[in-house]
Amino acid sequence: MPDSVNDLLHLAENAIYRENDQKKALEYLEAALTIEKKSLKAFLLRGVAELRSGLAEAAGASFAKALRLDKNNTEARLNLAVTHIMNREYPKAKALLDKVISQHARGEAYEIQGDMALLQGQYQEGAGWYGQALEVKPAEAHVYFKKAVCHYQLGQFKDCYKYAELSSELNPAFDDAGILSETAADEHVYGELGFLAKLILRPLRPYLKKQLKEQIQIHDEMLKIQKKAEELSVDPLMKIKNRSYFENVFEQLCEAAKQKKTGLCLVFIDLDNMKVFNELFGHPVLDKILGLLGEIFNASVRAQDLVARYAGDEFVMALPNCSKKGAKRVLDSILAKVEEMNRHKLAQLKVDKPITFSVGIAGAPEDTDDEPRPWSNQLVEKADLAALWAKHNGKNQSCFYESRRRSDFRQLAEDITQESKRKALKGERA
Fold it and tell me: Does residue 340 share a domain with residue 204?
């Protein structure tokens, strides 16, 4: 037997992967570990050989030793997760896989998560994990096949057929994928029919399968278009909706509230001193701050709410079925998170000025008038006026729009407009 660790490891790899002689591989690896007791590769290969021999417990011990030698070794962590799954120790496996995903977003980790879900009969979850794995490594025939199996178990035969076909196209020699594709197509087309009807319609099978494939292609194209439209509707920096999307959807929300006679609030948020921040700290730092604010906004609203970047330093939140007091509670929650950001994250960016907002809140139907203009236009104008009042009366505060103070709000807006014009004529900054 060779006395070089590298030679022994090379022989062990050949025995594992080419000769499929796990007993011989383990002999080589024991010899290698006698020479070098802390050989990471030897422990990893020994774990693989033990796993292939059905010795899950021993394999787990080998991978655990490898992980102790290198606590960031992804291969050891993934293989140890597999041994835990074989021993039905699912929480332990999940903890290891979550660690890999948080560090690397590895396709292998997603696939193993899918395998674990599939073994537990959690087919919807399994399909989701396999979908994420395919985003990372899109040319894996066996992952498409396992995703197809999940859809079959869920009775989603059209999706099963789609992914089984993709698996078969990537690996034409994979007979199981072809069989599953045919089975799923039959279930989708003939599933509700009796035996006699299936027999009579058998000659139509090629035509119906062609139709099914065309339907899937059209559906996939529509999904691509929809995904592209969604991407275009999002502010790329803050990951919240943009103004054009907001204006279209907010009008629909207003119409729905008007017809159903339910409440609707608009919160208009104006970032204080954005120009100062830009001049003091520069665009890159300001972009990072806006990204953090986007995370806070998204984490603070319900699924039915709409939050968007209205302009450079202006943001809006539309809150259906919400009173002005309820909107204030949402705002207070956001401001608490912003204060937390001011205390901790801004220091990391070397920013020594706090982020503050001037905020206006308007609600329907109480702040809308019986006039031809739609509610959407009225609420934007009135929430903006209230934010303007907050900004020009000290900043870092919020203000409710009130119809009884209509003339005060409009007079302030007119005074500000006149002052801006006067400064512009003098060449001063507005």
Answer: no
pTM equals 0.52
With a CB cutoff of 8 Å and minimum separation 6, the contacts of 355 are 271, 272, 289, 293, 338, 341, 342, 346
Find tokens 């209509």 and name the residue: 406
313 and 177 together in one domain: no
Q: What CA–CA distance (Å, rounded) separates 354 from 342? A: 5
CATH number of the domain at 366, please: 3.30.70.270
The pair of structure tokens assigned to 183 is 């089975």
Q: What is the pLDDT of residues 24-48, one digit of tens each?
A: 999 999 999 999 999 999 999 999 9
Start-to-end CA distance of the chain, whole Å, equals: 85
187 in the same domain as 58: yes
Residues 372, 275, single domain; the answer is: yes
Residues 65 and 192 in one domain: yes
d(CA 329, CA 331): 5
How far is it, in rounded angstroms, from Cα 265 to Cα 399?
A: 13
Q: Compute CA distances 375 → 37, 174, 364, whole Å.
A: 76, 60, 8
Give the residue-averaged pLDDT of 361-371: 87
**Contacting residues for 278 by C-beta, under 8 A, at least 6 apart:** 286
Domain membership flag for residue 173: yes
Burial of 185 (C-beta count, 10 Å sphere; 0-12/13-18/19+)? buried
Considering Cα of 49, then 51, then 52, then 54, what sign does the dihedral take? Answer: positive
Q: Which of 388, 430, 366 is nearest to 268 (CA)?
A: 388
For 266, phi and psi rounded to 5 degrees? Answer: -120, 125
Residue type at position 16: I
Same domain (yes/no): 181, 282: no
Report which secondary-structure segment, H or E, holds 282.
none
How large is the greatest C-alpha to C-alpha distance in the chain, in angstroms? Answer: 97
